[in-house]
Write a structure and sequence with these properties.
By secondary structure, this protein is an alpha/beta fold. The protein has five helices and twelve strands. The strands form three sheets. Strands 4-10-9-7-5-11-12 form a seven-stranded mixed barrel. It has a two-stranded antiparallel sheet with strand order 2-3. A two-stranded parallel sheet has the order 6-8. Strand 11 and strand 12 form a beta hairpin. The chain is globular and about 60 Å long. The N and C termini lie close together (about 5 Å). The relative contact order is 0.25.
Length: about 210
């Protein structure tokens, strides 16, 4: 058995979505003065490797804390998209070629290779995104969620967040800013992506791992 961490570390200098403040990690207590160390964390709910529920976009959409915890675990498979060019579209054939492995999965994780730009200006560039036909196919599948190794699932220029609106209406979740998807391989595996649990959650950081 192998366990692979799919999560970026939260740090003050990490990439955040344009217009969002970066996280702050402040020393609240120290061993020297208080006898224990404690850090005050201040960050937006969609910081780092995180999960979007329907409530992120849809009025009266379902919040993360309303899902049962077993919803965040399940069979997953990586969709290899590393050869899709910058600004390119990921077509439905990428999913269809996986056959039953995709149809029987709870989560599809799209490996664009874009995490190689983490911490660089290029990370905010024209990363590959789903084509309209791929979005339609995903909407017809019985998935719990999809994940990407990019800062968003919609193009960064799409302020309307069209894919979010279409697929989150299917009561699924999104995982953004994944990493290390290239270490998993092409076989199904168990995904554990447990979000921080807070009341009326419109999104939350996750610790995502693959168990192979």
């Amino acid at each position: 058995m192998a366990i692979i961490d799919l999560t970026h570390t939260i740090a003050e200098d990490m990439p955040v979505y344009p217009g969002t403040e970066p996280p702050r990690l402040s020393d609240a207590s120290s061993i020297e003065s208080d006898g224990f160390k404690e850090t005050l964390l201040s960050m937006f709910s969609h910081t780092g490797t995180h999960m979007d529920p329907p409530a992120h976009i849809l009025e009266n959409g379902r919040t993360l804390d309303s899902f049962p915890v077993d919803f965040f675990t399940g069979c997953a498979i990586v969709v290899d998209c590393k050869d899709v060019p910058e600004g390119g579209l990921i077509g439905p054939e990428r999913i269809e070629c996986l056959g039953d492995a995709a149809r029987e999965s709870d989560f599809l994780l799209f490996n664009t290779g874009w995490d190689r730009y983490w911490g660089k200006p290029e990370y905010f560039g024209e990363y590959p995104c789903l084509s309209p036909d791929a979005v339609e196919l995903i909407g017809q599948m019985e998935l719990r969620g999809i994940g990407f190794d990019t800062i968003g699932i919609d193009p960064i220029s799409d302020e309307a967040l069209s894919i979010h609106h279409t697929l989150l209406a299917q009561n699924m979740v999104f995982i953004e800013n994944l990493t290390n998807l290239d270490k998993i391989g092409d076989r199904p595996f168990m995904l554990y992506a447990l979000p921080m649990k807070w009341e009326a959650s419109d999104g939350a950081p996750v610790r995502a791992i693959a168990v192979i």
